[in-house]
Amino acid sequence: MNNSFVLGKRFFFSSSNRSGIFRRLNNNIINSAPKDIQIEELRKPIGLPQPPFNTKEYKYGNSFLDLFNSEKTEKRAGELEVEFRKSGFHDLYVLKKTNGKIFYSPPSYWKADKSLYFPHLSGQRLADGEECNIEDSLAGKVSIVRMFTTDVGKNLIDSYFVDKTHGLDYLKNDLDLLKDVEGAKSAQIIEINMAENWLKMAIVNFAKNKYASIVPEHRHDKTFICNRTQLPFQIREEIQINNLYSGYVFVIDENLKIRWAASGEASQKDFNLLWRCVNAIRKE
C-alpha cells in the first residue's frame, strides 16, 4: 500500500488532528452569526485574474489531500464562514434592509489594464434553446450584462434600464440607443437568468414561452438561462453576486473584462452613472 496514503489515513483519523479540524470549523460557524449589515463601495476591480474559456470547470471546496494541508484547511474554513453567513434567510434579510443594494457602485469605470475578467458561463439561448458559452456572445463587443435569479432581482435592476422621467427605455429601444455612431462603438444588452439549481432550471424552461413573451424578440439571441451552481460560492463572491434575491449589472468590454458593476435598485444618480460609463467605454 502507498506509504503516503497510509500516513494520510493516520493523520486524518488520529483524534488530535480530527478534533483540530472540527474545532476550527465550529469556530467559523460561530463567527458566521448575522452581524450588522455594512454596504461598501467597490473600490478595487472585481472579477477573475484569467480570461474565461469554454472548457473551464470551477473547483468546489478542497480535495481530499488538501485536508492534510493546514494552510489550505484554514483558508477553506474561512471560506465556509463567509458561505454560512451569506446564505438562506440572511439573503432575504439583506434584501429587505437594503432593497437589494449589496454594494455601492464605483464612482467611475475601472481602467482596462487594471480590470479583471468575467467568469465562464454556459447556458441555453432563449432564441432556440441551444447550449452556448456566454463569453462567445461577449467577445469583441461592449456589453451591459443583466444577471438575476429571482423576479425580485430582475425587477430591481430594471431600474438601471428604464427612466420614465426622461422617456428612456434601453430594454425596448437598445438597438437605437446603443447603435454604432461616429466616435462610439455599438453596445449590446446581455440577459442572464441564473436558475438556482437544476430543478429551478427545469421550471424556467417549462415557462420559457412566458419568459420569451416578456423579453423583446430582438433580444432573444442575447438572453440566456444558466444554472447558478456552475459557479461555486467563491467564484460568485469574486464578482459579488452571492445574494440570491438581488439583481446585478455589469459593464463588460470587448476583452471580457468587468469595467463597472451595480446591484439592487438604481437611483437616478445610479442610472446616469451606468450610462455615462457605458458611453465612455464605447469611445475607447
UniProtKB/TrEMBL annotation:
<dbReference type="GO" id="GO:0005743">
    <property type="term" value="C:mitochondrial inner membrane"/>
</dbReference>
<dbReference type="InterPro" id="IPR007849">
    <property type="entry name" value="ATP10"/>
</dbReference>
<dbReference type="Pfam" id="PF05176">
    <property type="entry name" value="ATP-synt_10"/>
</dbReference>
<dbReference type="GO" id="GO:0033615">
    <property type="term" value="P:mitochondrial proton-transporting ATP synthase complex assembly"/>
</dbReference>
<protein>
    <submittedName>
        <fullName>Mitochondrial ATPase complex subunit ATP10</fullName>
    </submittedName>
</protein>
